[in-house]
Specification:
48% helix, 27 helices, 743 residues, alpha+beta, Glutaredoxin, four-stranded mixed sheet, globular, Rossmann fold, ten-stranded mixed sheet
Length: 743
Amino acid sequence: MINFRTVFTLIKKEIKSFLDNPASYIVWIVFLVLWQFMFFKNVFLVGEASLRSMYDLMPWIMLILVPAVTMGSITKEKDEGTLELVLTHPVSELEFLIGKFFGSLVFISLALLFSLSVALSLSRFGSFDWGVYSTQLFGSVLFAASFASLGIFVSSVLSSQVASLLLTAGLGFVFIVSGSDFFTSSAPLVIVPVLQKLSLVDHFQSMARGVIDLRDFWYFISFIAVFLSLSYLWLLKRIYGNKKSVFINYQAKVVLFIGIAALTNIIGDRIPGRIDLTKEKIYTLSGATKGVLGSLPDIVTVELYASSRLPVQYLPVLRDTKDLLSDYKNFSKGNIVLRVIDPGTDQQKIQEAIGAGMQEVQFNVVGQEEFQVKTGFLGIVLSYAGKTEVISFVQGTADLEYQLTSLIKKLTTKDKKVVAFLGDHGEKDVNLVYKEFSNELSKQYETQSYSFNKEKPVVEDKINTLVIGGPNGPMSDAEKQAIRDFIGKGKSVVFLIDMYSTDTGSLLATPTTNNLADLVSEYGVTVNTNMVYDLSSNETIRFGAGSTTFFIPYPFWARSLVKNATPVTARIQGVALPWASSLTLDEGKMKDKGYIVDKLLVSTPYASTKSGDVVINPQQQFPRENLSEQLLAVALKPLDSNNSNLGRIVVVGDSDFLTDDFVMNSPENLVFGMNAVSWLAQEESLAAIKIKNATTGRLIFKDPKEQTALKYFNLGVAVVIPALLGVGRIARRRKLVAKKYEK
């Protein structure tokens, strides 16, 4: 039986030995400074209010901290001859080992807690997901505990502290890279899954996303238990080494225990179970998905073509895909039939997979001491009422829920609402620059290009929502009246108004007039003839040519913020608006038309505007006077919600933000556009699902000096606090020793 009071005493003794050793504080400082220096090197360039890159570095920095902490755990006791002395007291080998383990873990965890200072600092300058941070911290403690158990085992085997440090670092490196291409590219394919499952980093990264998966948690616990049991066995060898029969009995028990640990990990790998701690619950099926699944009219067959011998980089994707499809099946009330098909080497099944639209992925494997090219599948076929939709290859699971739900809705919805893109007045071409936006809308709506009949302009009744994207050509009074009549029938319009024509060759923007701004102003929204620049929140662009290119912030590409929580701004934190114009509201005129307004997007308070002909050169100096918040997008809705004779309206002072180039680089732009159309069409938007993996907010600084202050403050904390603790602790200890001698 374990005496927990004894264990607690041993833990306190171990922690005290660390705190009384000046070298411990040096190890702390080296670890923290190196960790934070590498993090702050790029965090402001990325601009995310997240510690993701910091925890990507953590396993590698642990190669310094953990071996330094554990190298003397048992080796030092051997060197000083105190191991036998301790074990001759009423302390069992197991109690001694547990005390060493938890003492080391507490000391390492105290170093990891310094990340809280960085988290608190970043949260002041952006939307910070504390749920993700909690799993990152929890996962790092489990990682450290696993590494510490390995270090204690090495320390129990070797008699040299230096050798223990080097071997622990070496073995730790192996467990870090075991699932990477460094190992798997040259390993026989049959052991690749084993190497991937042994990787500490793969399990840590899975947890650091913001979700505690039972399989990852159990792996860490099993890892710790295995190496502590091996350490326990090695300690027993010192006692029972001459009594082979007794020692063999202990050996058998430890081997059986390790076998059970391995078996439970193999079996448990097939049993999903997770706790989603992310702020937006991004690893939990969204309400929109549950709504689609709950209203399925009939059976939808989902076939997952997954080769069992996929390369290592696709194994986490396969695991997450199976988990997600299992969730779909569970929430579908029996209307999702899931089949997992492994084509293997069966040529008939391989041809069936290719015929179903699956994409073969090629990869190299080792066989017969040479590289061989193999093929595999990881794709999904959705079937309903004789119709099929295909995801030919699952590259990742970031937007897999969105793809699946939108395709299921596309298959099962009969009467879709119509979204039309107006043309013939210089608007953005839906088939050229709005292609991505149109393709995503087509999964939920019927989309089409639309042109007025010049003799008798009218918007057809079958159209529910009209998108007018950046007109720059003349529009007749009759055509404008057709748009007014369309709105008066309870139909909806998106006005994307450009007040400037930009020439990136001459780096000059000139005002335009043929842009429907006059029509929009009738509803109480004036799109101002100016160009907004934001000094605090903006996009970074590449400028220059050839080898002289460099990245600089571009205030004219404002990174707008969400003003109010509305269905249009659901699940997004901002939209990149290039060369946008500000809006001014006339609420009296708006009320006369029967509307009220929701402010959707604004700049930060550190923004201003330029008027007239505007030089758009990114290297110019931007005035810092008269800075204020600028309104950039609004939604108008009927004052009387029961009035079916007034349509909804969305106005944005920019049309470029939905072009293909921008939505590819800023997914929130696409989500905003899709949310806007869904709100106008009065349908539930699926767009919010698409952005579910965006757990990080943007860092917003009003002054570059704030970045410098944040960096050096945290580096100072990493140095000053351990140094003060060390000096204070050692000074207090010397004072106590001096008092004893005085007596």
